Amino acid sequence: MIGFAYLGCLLLGICCMLLLDWRFRLFFWRDAAAAALVMLAGTGFFLLWDAAGIAAGIFLRGVSEATTGILLAPELPLEEPFFLVFLVLCTMILYTGTVRVLTRRRSSTS
To answer: pLDDT of the chain along its 110 residues, tens only?
Structure first.
């Protein structure tokens, strides 16, 4: 069961970020269609980036007891797309939250 620890942590992190998103209506709960498009584009971009890095011999899969050991492609573990979804989701929630805070700060000082 320890082989699913990293994947479980990634899924838990995604759920927590979606709860923050829901609470503050920052990304998916503000505009679901645009958020889905950004998620697909961002995750797709980083998967292509990974593929290029793997093909160039730059990215190599590390072995850990905390991972499943399942590969989607040579040197591309099952956990990688989930990590990329988490990365894009965190980035967009941080970005939209920062924009909201700065916009409110500017409007309150005007």
So the answer is: 788 999 999 999 999 999 999 999 999 999 999 999 999 999 999 999 999 999 999 988 878 888 999 999 999 999 999 999 999 999 999 999 999 999 999 988 86
Please give the Cα distance from 82 to 39 (Å, whole number): 11
- Listed by start position, the domains of the chain span 2-109
Please state the pTM of the whole predicted model: 0.92
Phi, psi of 76 (to 5 degrees): -120, 100
Task: Evaluate whether 39 touches 85 at the Cβ level (below 8 Å).
Answer: yes
